[in-house]
């Protein structure tokens, strides 16, 4: 595995470093009231660097469809954009997680949909093993590409120093581009 990338939110700069990255996942929304004020500039940084780009929504308790609507209303999707649910709030049940992923898949055909969660959520809260088109698992174990789970995964977030960094389970950058359907965007 040689594909690496980072996770950015409002805690990072609009012009974060992209050298050595093949992808970036950007926080866009949370619940139905919060939008990352930097996400558009962060998307521009990613696209100017030719990175495969994903966008994520941080789940909060509340109506699923309202959060899907809020998230999708913010993004002008292009081919290859990946859509991600960030499942970290213990008050959000497994059924909610499954519904969000399925609604986003139905409403955005042709786009990959991922579930992001930590190892504890995956092993102790998940009851269906449904992760959309793939699992992005967080476990800071100092073993990139070796999360301590037996389930299939596509991305492993293995450290948060100096920034949240993940490795992708792809042979190379070309395989990641093919999987995501990414197209090069002129700078």
From TrEMBL:
Belongs to the glycosyl hydrolase 25 family. Coiled coil: none annotated. PROSITE patterns: GLYCOSYL_HYDROL_F25_2 (PS51904). InterPro entries: GH, Glyco_hydro_25, Glyco_hydro_fam25_subgr. The lineage of its organism: Bacteria, Bacillati, Actinomycetota, Actinomycetes, Kitasatosporales. Keywords: Glycosidase, Hydrolase. CDD domains: GH25_muramidase (cd00599). It holds the Pfam family Glyco_hydro_25. This is Muramidase. One of its GO terms (biological process) is peptidoglycan catabolic process. It comes from Streptomyces noursei. GO terms for molecular function: lysozyme activity.
